[in-house]
Amino acid sequence: MIRVVLPPHLRTLARVDGELELEVKAPVSQRSVLDAVEARYPMLRGTIRDHVTLLRRPMVRFFACGEDLSHESPDTPLPDAIASGSEPFLIIGAIAGG
Amino acid sequence: MSKVRVLVGTRKGAFILTSDGARKRWKVSGPHFAGWEIYHMKGSPVNPDRIYASQTSGWFGQIIQRSDNGGKTWNTPGSSAEELSGPDGTPKGESNKFVYDTSPETGKPLTTHQWYDGTQHPWEFKRVWHLEPSLHDPDHVYAGVEDAALFESKDGGKSWHELAGLRGSDTGPKWQPGAGGMCLHTILLDPSNPNRISIAISAAGTFRTDDGGKTWKPINHGLHSQFLPDPTAEVGHCVHRIAFHPSRPNTLFMQKHWDVMRSDNAGDSWQEVSGNLPTDFGFPIDVHAHEPETIYVVPIKSDSEHYPPSGRLRVYRSRAGGNEWEALTKGLPQRNCYVNVLRDAMSVDSLEPCGIYFGTTGGQVYASGNAGDSWKPIVRDLPAVLSVEVQTLP
């Protein structure tokens, strides 16, 4: 099981509490994880990545295992700890404002 | 006894204010969609319990919400269990998918418009400013968006497509964003002619279709805007709001960046009716529910000083369709008031006497149950109010 943590506003929108647990076929990448998130929670389509280009929205960040993976290719395999479910994949609303 | 429901969109959520027809005691529910910008909410004239809401965020983009029980509960259209996936098993979730039409079948929609620096810039969807439910079908709704375009849904908000003839009209490359962005903010559906729709865009002007949205023409003759190289240009005018009385759809009223205007031929030509207003800058304009020549504006000091002149919040009413205006001040703060009233933040009910409502950037929602003669705040401390719509219920 892949573990995914949504930012609070998207948890409210998807009507979930806590982490998501999703089955994701290997290879586990940003793209395959987000495909699984959107398949289970279609109301999240367009909120994390663009509907058409599937590019990450500018003020959304992807963290995993203490690293910012936002600028990695969507098809780069995620760390083993994410693929094994020992660490969660974090979807973050970027800090903005002051 | 009749009831009134006031739908308030704010910078940080939606609020629903309800009262019986006496309009003296109000219940406040909310915030709904807490923390999100709610640009607009509006109920279907056919089924008032069907309400559409535009929920937006700089982080997570556009969401469309729909209630089928008068705002008690909400859903993103098309996200119920039986609608989770399409025939091929792929997730649908398209209620927030606003994609500009670039198909050759619908003409040649533009891919650029004028940018602040005069160069051409690609059209980029940012948010839905205004939702206008059809007068005839609760599943049919129009959306005015930024960057300016008109979309419609015929399945209750589950999916959207652009009426590309508007953006594809010849003037498109000359449209440019105002300070608030290039937004399509007003949609008037003619009750007497289902093929006629008038819309307004900042900063492009006013446009009309007479064939149900296939083709559009600018209707800005008579507007004069000093910030344009040609002050009487066909497009480029910063129209802040247009309004009409449903019984007289050919008489349009306009609050422009500067100037209050009127047309008696469905926008083919306009005349200034600013008259004795203390300033003719402002954002909203609305029409009395029972008196088609009684109109309301909120004068704002200037384009850079977005607050009432002299710190006195005054609604101005004309009972003559313009030119002759009276200040309405009873119950409104008359000193140290420096709020703004945004373009979609005024509305009227259809009770007798007519109720007028407006919200401020300071978070107050004021109501008058006597056509503006006196005012009281329903609430005082909401987040900045972006929009106010009123439903009169049986």
Describe the structure.
The complex is a heterodimer of chains A (98) and B (394). With 98 residues, chain A is α+β, with helices and mostly antiparallel strands. Chain A has one domain (2-93): Roll (Ubiquitin-like (UB roll)). Helix content of chain A is 22%, strand content 19%. Chain A has three helices and five strands; from the N terminus they run βαβαββαβ. Chain A has helices spanning 8-14, 30-40, 80-83, and strands spanning 2-5, 20-22, 60-64, 67-68, 89-93. In chain A, strands 2-1-5-3-4 form a five-stranded mixed beta sheet, covered by helices on one side. Chain A is globular, with a radius of gyration of 12 Å. The termini of chain A are far apart. With 394 residues, chain B is mainly β. Chain B has a domain at 36-187 and 210-223. Chain B contains one helix and 29 strands. A four-stranded antiparallel beta sheet of chain B has the order 3-2-1-29, with no helix packed on it. Chain B has a four-stranded antiparallel beta sheet with strand order 9-10-11-12. In chain B, strand 27 and strand 28 form a beta hairpin. The longest helix of chain B is centred in the middle third of the chain and has 4 residues, at 164-167. The model of chain B has no long low-confidence stretch (mean pLDDT 94). Chain A binds chain B through residues 7, 9-10, 12-13, 38-39, 42-48, 51-52, 57, 59-60, 93-94, 96, and chain B through 34-36, 57-63, 76, 78-79, 84-85, 90-97, 99.
